[in-house]
Amino acid sequence: MNIALFGPPGAGKGTQAKELSKKYSIPHISTGDILRANVRDGTELGLKAKQYMDKGELVPDEVLIGLIRNRLTGSDCETGYLLDGYPRTIPQADALTDILKEISKPLDAVINIEVSDDELVKRLSGRRSCACGESYHVMFNPPEKDGICNACGADLYQRDDDKEEVIRQRLAVYNEKTKPLINYYDDAGILVNIDGTGVVDAVFADICKVMNQFK
Ligand code: ADP
Ligand code: ADP
Ligand code: ZN
Residue 207 is part of a domain; what is its CATH number? Predict the structure, then answer.
């Protein structure tokens, strides 16, 4: 099953992808998680990416295209993959099409999770993240123990880019550079829109209905 989860920052891609990856046994490929791991480890890639991430800007396409090519040619992608946060620009989508052609794993569907801007700001400003990739919300999806990850027991933190000014910038960047991909994939005939405003479990059930068509 070859799927991309699409949607603005805060739509719930990471939250849904974690569970979908378990249910369907396909790797969750989050470019944001990969970049943050590089920032934490102080790699050359991380040092370069951080300047953009802190400002709410996109990391340059050539960096992301190299990264995603590497990841998708990994052996764990043989049975499929679940992309989260890639592609975010038209050049990234074009490069993805080429890579997927080379490895004979074209996308089955691009699942677009729709949430209003007001709700996105509430979600992002209350998000608490864990280095393991889990994310929570102080009101909508709190961890069992305050400030502690259910999955791994580590301390939760607030991402630097989840501060109000950077959130506004990320939404603006989404509207300008990423949103055009909705038409791009609609024209390709593989776009599926999902209402992302319900509770986590309701959105999950709707996404599963789509994914089950490709099992
Ligand atoms: P994305 O990966 O698309 O940026 P996340 O999955 O990290 O989004 O979710 C953003 C925030 O919204 C997190 O704090 C998460 O706990 C919360 N959240 C996710 N899905 C829902 C939902 N259906 N209803 C309310 N809050 C949600
Ligand atoms: P969110 O969960 O809020 O959608 P991500 O974790 O996916 O955010 O991404 C965080 C940041 O990492 C982005 O604001 C951007 O700077 C960088 N990033 C992640 N994926 C990409 C991508 N495909 N292209 C460019 N930059 C990216
Ligand atoms: Zn954790």
Answer: 3.40.50.300
